[in-house]
Amino acid sequence: MKPQGNEMANGLTPNNGLDLNDPSQYHTDGQLFLTEAFKIIMTEVLRKGTDVNEKVCEWRDPDELSALLDLELRDKGEEQPQLLQRVQDVAKYSVKTSHPRFLNQQFAGVDYHSLTGRFLTEALNTSQYTYEAAPVFVLMENEVLRKMRAMVGWTDGDGIFCPGGSISNMYALNLARYKTFPQVKGQGLWALPRLAVFASKESHYSVQKGASFLGIGMDNVFVVKADSRGCMIPEDLDEKIALAKSQGAVPLLVHATSGTTVLGSFDDLNRTADVCQKHKIWMHVDAAWGASVLFSKQHRHLMNGVNRADSVTWNPHKMLLTGLQCSVILLKDTTGLLNQSHSASATYLFQQDKFYDMSLDTGDKSIQCGRKVDCLKLWLMWKALGSEGFAARIDKAFALARYVTEELVKRDGFQLLEKPQYVNVCFWFIPPSLRGKNKDADYQERLAKVAPVVKERMTKKGSMMVGYQPQGDNVNFFRLVVLSPYVSQQDMDFFLDEIERLGKDL
Amino acid sequence: MKPQGNEMANGLTPNNGLDLNDPSQYHTDGQLFLTEAFKIIMTEVLRKGTDVNEKVCEWRDPDELSALLDLELRDKGEEQPQLLQRVQDVAKYSVKTSHPRFLNQQFAGVDYHSLTGRFLTEALNTSQYTYEAAPVFVLMENEVLRKMRAMVGWTDGDGIFCPGGSISNMYALNLARYKTFPQVKGQGLWALPRLAVFASKESHYSVQKGASFLGIGMDNVFVVKADSRGCMIPEDLDEKIALAKSQGAVPLLVHATSGTTVLGSFDDLNRTADVCQKHKIWMHVDAAWGASVLFSKQHRHLMNGVNRADSVTWNPHKMLLTGLQCSVILLKDTTGLLNQSHSASATYLFQQDKFYDMSLDTGDKSIQCGRKVDCLKLWLMWKALGSEGFAARIDKAFALARYVTEELVKRDGFQLLEKPQYVNVCFWFIPPSLRGKNKDADYQERLAKVAPVVKERMTKKGSMMVGYQPQGDNVNFFRLVVLSPYVSQQDMDFFLDEIERLGKDL
Predict the structure, then answer these.
(1) Which of A52, A226, B141, B149 is most buried, most CB within 10 Å of its CB?
(2) Are both B365 and B442 inside the same structural domain?
(3) 8 A C-beta contact, residue B171 and residue B160
(4) Can you tell me the mean pLDDT for B477-496?
(5) Mean pLDDT of A177-200
(6) pLDDT of residue B10
């Protein structure tokens, strides 16, 4: 199309590559590229990436990988074939987290309905703040939250999707603070007495990060003792609350955990609730990892008493395989606390003279402005599986974890830390040279070095990935996280065999 | 495969639908579903959703939409054809934000290379915290941040991708606070004097949200005057700092803006820096919306002085079309402030005896734990376009905004608020019945009702979407945000014609 005079005057000349009045070629080319890239994603990430005969990772040293990827960003753009090669390279050198031998984190596996929801979310590209910008997703978020609250045992309440469990946990802190001291929103913490937060030594480190970020301070997190299985000791919680009070601090929130990060322990929520009730403290349950047991008739007893909480964090991106990010904070509150504590009433988004029910403009409940849509992937997967499908998956993951635990104790050289409550299987591999030895300081020192070496070897070989860590007095041990129902007993057997192979000379 | 005895004992019987030792059918079925859904996404979202002859939105009242979507989540799962219909429905009733007539928010348009990066990110599903879990993305994030810092004018520094600009702005607050008062991390705000934050009345509402969330309090945000173009007045900033000091508060951070939300104004950064330097205050530039002008030789002068800032927020998901979410906080700091202020040293992630350079485990710089990968979409798009391609796009968007501004002032019934500095075109539509009337209270009241009605009509018709808002003494006016370079002059002309059509009887 020939440019008109005023186009020239405005700099809208076609000499910068595209005729602005005919972007159709742009869309055609772009859609072709996306279609070609989709084939690569299907082949490299989803077929090869889930094939047990392929490597779970293609290890390269950082310097070598940097060079291979040619990461530098330049002035000039590149041609499509080169860009498709880049898609291929990114796929090749990334860890295959859906691979059956990836047991390294609290996410794994792939759900194709969720993945479809994620692709659709990306293509629709909107922000979860107003009904006008996201009509489907505003209604959908409300429904998903309602259903999740029902599983917790609440017929009413509130909630919101957050970018990850750490931020969900921070919401709980802020809501508890606002509920008791609404003046904090305006005047800040200087208007308040010193606050105290309570969490067990096994709780997630986001309690510390949250206390720091919200200005409460890490030192005001009172660390409650846990028993050998990793569960918070209610008597010690009671004592720590008394201690805080004796120091003049105001107990703000008890942070209980359903499914601790390392051991997968479940705090006794009823006994925790008793203590919270006695002291009238906000009870938050960080069930980012564990809440999905609520689907299982067989295992939901682990969270008995959760209905007595004031707030619950739940990350479907972990056990439910929705993919990152998918986290919610659920609230028992029916007084609009979420909106009151976070609202700033921006007039350019939350106009008060719109033609529809403006209570559907839920964005002011959030500490964010633009907020990614995280509900569709969960909703579509839930529609596909039904709650019963989730239950079956959870039960299978438990069964697989129980299987590998039983196999492990049958073998020489494997030693469990504790019988798992959940799907975290924590154990030491004792190489032949250490078996039967005295468990003195030298032994511990040598044992501590086993897991890092085995981890290095499996990673460089690409045969599997599993995490390790020290914890308290326990030197480095493996943490096998069994969460994808689409791994097999053979994968579990392979895992034990492979540790023996990789560690037998240590 | 026949189940073995111990499978039965462990509950691993195949009667719950799948043989755990043969998940291949699961993958085959799932990949087929995804492939079918991809076709729907291509047709409904990307072809029809960008076609100017299709509607930009398919308005339904909330109750009707709820019923159409059948949102309820049930115990039983659904069959694939029904699920594909759901994909279709979600696409149909969602707003088409890539449509050339979507000018409603600070995001619009589609970049297919970015979208490819987003699909690949979703398929690879990992968390941006350690080199072992995300080798490609740790290196890539570092490179993208390095390049963005270079555009700000820094040869060194730090930074991190955050879930949105509001949280990026909160990082700046926390870093400024920690730098001056490192004891805040442990002891909280009670150990500190009252802090004061400074931001213009045109700044984004996340300053208020951040001050509240971080325990500083909204009342401790001193609101600085802006001139009629929406730019912060440095003399008033200086006075507000003196006022805060006189009240015994410690000035913590000046929050300047490059590209305000409503008017698209750019604060004078050099003059702001002079004031910050004089008072030795952290200078943060919220350039979430505006920073992309740095690509343009023609327009980067708007941010002269940005190199003098301590931190900068930049959201590529706005002007650069990466898609939500893509936001960074960039820092001039080279002392490791990001890590010091946020670290909690979780031993299960950030082991200190790994076999690779552990400084690559950058996750402890974040307030999050699991963190979505947001760098790939930007990196791949940058590789495709080069910095020059971005510059051309930015220049085109400016030219289009200038074009529509010029056309608008030629017409009766359109009145600009201010000549735009950026691509926000703010104006009133004065319907014939109000033209030439006295601008008294009655006039203002009637004018205020015009934009909501025109907005309702365009939305229900599906012809276009554009936002409106009141601001200060200004009653409701339209804010046209021209950011996608893949809209045409005809679209701009249509926009003005359509407002006239929809509002002529008011």
Answers:
(1) B141
(2) no
(3) yes
(4) 93
(5) 98
(6) 40
Give chain B positions within 8 Å (CB) of A373: 324
State whether A494 and A349 are in the same domain: no
Identify the domain boundary among B342, B372, B402: B372
CA dihedral A377, A383, A387, A390 (to 10 degrees): -50
Identify whether B194 is part of a domain.
yes
Say if residue A316 is in the same domain as residue A423.
no
Based on the fold, state whether residues B298 and B351 are members of the same structural domain: yes
Q: What is the dihedral of CA A451, A453, A455, A458, to 10 degrees?
A: -140
Q: How far is CA A271 from the centre of its chain?
A: 27
Say what the pTM is. Answer: 0.96
Q: How many angstroms separate the CA atoms of A135 and A139, rounded?
A: 7
Residues A398 and A458 in one domain: yes
Probe site for chain A from B21, B136, B221 (most A CB atoms < 10 A) = B136
Domain boundary pick from A326, A345, A372: A372
Asked if residue A71 is part of any domain, the answer here is no
CATH code for the domain in which residue B361 is found: 3.40.640.10
Which chain B residues are within 8 Å of A360, Cβ to Cβ? 62
* ipTM of predicted complex: 0.96
A328-369 tens-digit pLDDT: 999 999 999 999 999 998 888 888 899 999 999 999 999 999
Residue of A nearest to B93 (CA): A136
In angstroms, what CA-CA distances link B462 with A27, A35, B41, B46, B498? 21, 29, 20, 17, 11
Q: Are residues B319 and B408 in the same domain?
A: no
Of A75, A347, A386, the CB nearest to B76: A386
Contacts of A163 in chain B (CB under 8 A): 163-164, 167, 325, 368, 372
B410-426 tens-digit pLDDT = 999 999 999 999 999 99
- Report CA torsion sign: A135, A141, A144, A149: negative
Are B416 and B278 found together in one domain?
no
Residue B414 is part of a domain; what is its CATH number?
3.90.1150.170
**Residue B99 maps to a domain:** no
**DSSP letter for each residue of A330-361:** EE---S-HHHHHH----TTTS-SS-SS-GGG-
Cα A230 to chain center, whole Å?
Answer: 20
pLDDT tier for residue A22 given thresholds of 50, 70 and 90: low
Q: What is the mean pLDDT of residues B335-364?
A: 92
Give domain status of residue A442, yes or no: yes
Query: Which residues, numbered 260 to 319 in chain A, qualify as contacts with chain B under a Cβ-Cβ cut-off of 8 Å?
Result: 261-262, 315, 317
One domain for residues B351 and B390: no
Alpha helices in A199-284, H assignment, sequence order: 206-213, 234-246, 269-279
Q: How confident is the model at residue B24 (pLDDT cuts 50, 70, 90)?
A: confident
Residues 6+ positions from A198 with CB-CB distance below 8 Å: A221, A222, A224, A237, A240, A241, A244, A251, A253, A254, A255, A281
In angstroms, the separation between the Cα of residue B468 and the nearest Cα of chain A is 7
Task: Give the total number of structural domains in chain A.
Answer: 2
Residue B21: pLDDT band by 50, 70, 90 thresholds?
low
Over residues A469-483, the mean pLDDT reads: 95
Chain B from 354 to 393: CB within 8 A of any A CB: 354-357, 360, 367-373, 376, 379-380, 382-389, 392
Q: What percent of chain B has pLDDT over 70?
A: 96
Residue B365: domain span = 127-372
Average pLDDT of span A53-82 = 97
